Amino acid sequence: MRKNVIPGSFQLMKKINTGLVFDAIRLYAPISRAEIAKLLNLTPATVTNITAELLKRNIIMESDFGKSNGGRRPVLLKINPNSYYIISVYIGPTKVRVATINMESEIMCSKQESLYSNISFEKAKEIIVTLIREVIDSCIVEKNKILGIGVAIHGIVNFEKGIVVFSPNFGWKNIGLRDVLEKEFDIPVFIDRDVRAMAMAENWYGEGREFDDFICIKVGYGIGAAFIKDKQQIRGVSDGLGEFGHIKIKVDDLKCICGNYGCLENYASERAVIRFARENGYEDEFDIEKINLEALNGNKVIVEALKKAGYYLGLGVANLINIFNPGLIIVGGDLVDINIYFESLIESARENSLEDLFEHVKIKRAKTGKDSIIKGAGLLVLDSLFDSIEGEVIV
């Protein structure tokens, strides 16, 4: 479990403790109040008060009786999975996916549609709104049972203001997406970067569950990173921390979509693998399944392209290791599932980082898989649930 260090105000203390109790029930249910108090080093009164709030709001439920240790049998608690629902939206570089998920992050239904480069926001908005309405109708979700809408998007996001600052694939700048969707649906909306949603999913359900601090890297058409400290996102002064794909690997080389030159994602992303292969004569169509199949069949051009891209990502990872000395780095994305690429990045990170620092870091693939971002988007809503447990987040 996470460290029981509660800094700051009473309201922050209540948020963190409520989140701790919710996590304990989610992870170890069915569990008694006494077991929660012992596990988290909280007073029985604190646990009783928090669980009373969660029961009142139907977030948890009493499930059964536990074993007696001489007195009355304790009442056990568990999450009430279908008491409320969340609409999750992932706006990726090439498609938008919308899902309805329950309180245990199970996907109830899901729909998606393709997007294209430089699509206008107005056109994309029509697609997103239509898909949200479709998943609500498909799952027969009553509006008063929807906690909120969580949106993960590729690009730079101002989380506090709900603004898409810059989406490189679409060319969007300073789009007030939260306000647009809240006006459309009259439901709370929470927006963050896709890699932070992935980190959230790994934090709750994946490799990061047993770690307080870790770095999460997402590899796709672009590359981004999220930094978790004491189970919380670190965001930077202007909410821009994590533009890992734009560290410089070469000087005065290829121009990146960000406008600068020599960025890591030009050499380590899916786009890089495609470019490396085409530079060596590969002319067939490209998608991630095709790349994987060609690699498995021993296509030398594809194998070398994957090794080269993995090597460059390993250089970037080595920089993170040398600067931050992390205990865990989680890497996710379709490319990472291809062994040649992953093994190349591990070897490159080993070669290019300080030996002692490399020995103390674990580099692991994301455990939450292809649904990590869509589930992570939903967790943006669940995490906000405890910002003000007295408030009207749940009605």
UniProtKB/TrEMBL annotation:
InterPro entries: ATPase_NBD, ROK, ROK_cs, WH-like_DNA-bd_sf, WH_DNA-bd_sf
Source species of the chain: Caloramator fervidus
Taxonomy, superkingdom: Bacteria
Keyword Methyltransferase: no
Reported function: Transcriptional repressor of xylose-utilizing enzymes.
Family per record: Belongs to the ROK (NagC/XylR) family.
Keyword field: Carbohydrate metabolism, Xylose metabolism
Descriptive protein name: Transcriptional regulator, MarR family
Annotated GO biological process: D-xylose metabolic process
The UniProt record lists the keyword Membrane: no
One matching Pfam family: ROK
